[in-house]
Design a protein that fits this description.
Helices cover about 75% and strands about 0% of the residues. It has about 200 residues and is mostly helical. The protein has one domain (about 15-195): Serine Threonine Protein Phosphatase 5, Tetratricopeptide repeat, CATH 1.25.40. Helix 6 packs antiparallel against helix 7.
Length: about 200
């Protein structure tokens, strides 16, 4: 059970024509972005495209290519967040790049690598959630990150997994106490955790 459904990759199938065309367009955008390295909008669009390219490869089970694309997206997002450290949208965007890498590693049972990526995502999301305790999206981002990390730690057989499952429950419980509207799926996850910690 995953709070955000991660598509399980299929067999290594060839890319469709539309996917090949998209990946070619990313190469063109990369050349444009190289000419304007400080154009934040262009760099951000390129980062989003690399993330989508990684998703395409991941869906096909082409993990090395997916990781390469995700890493490029991550590096661009790191650079952008350093250029504008106060831009919380860029920080949140960086957390999603870490999350995608974590998901990719998790699917391959590369648990230490997944744990490191999810920890990086949590570090960012925790700061944003603390700064904006009444922002529903930032709270949801945090509980989803905790869920992913808890799952990895449990799969590793770590006794600390329980601590992170409890943290996940606490964030969801606090969201409900504040009257945040949560999805049916999120409610299902809450009830699951409530049976353990409630």
């Amino acid at each position: 059970m995953d709070p955000d459904e991660t598509q399980i990759p299929g067999p290594r199938e060839p890319l469709t024509d539309a996917e090949k065309e998209f990946i070619s367009s990313v190469d063109v955008k990369k050349k444009l972005a190289e000419q304007e390295p400080y154009n934040i909008n262009l760099q951000r669009a390129l980062s989003n495209d690399y993330l989508k390219e990684g998703d395409i490869y991941r869906k096909r089970g082409q993990y090395a290519e997916a990781q390469e694309a995700y890493n490029v997206s991550l590096e661009i997002r790191k650079m952008l967040s350093e250029l504008d450290a106060d831009n919380e949208d860029l920080q949140r965007s960086l957390s999603f790049a870490y999350e995608r890498l974590g998901d990719l590693f998790s699917e391959q049972d590369l648990l230490p690598e997944a744990k490191k990526a999810f920890n990086s995502s949590i570090f960012i999301r925790d700061k944003l959630a603390r700064k904006y305790p009444d922002n529903q999206q930032k709270q949801r981002d945090l509980w989803v990150a905790y869920w992913r990390l808890s799952d990895i730690m449990e799969r590793q057989g770590s006794m600390d997994a329980l601590v992170f499952w409890h943290a996940t429950y606490n964030v969801l419980r606090d969201m409900k106490k504040k009257g945040f509207v949560i999805s049916d799926d999120d409610e299902e996850h809450f009830e699951y955790l409530k049976d353990i910690f409630g």
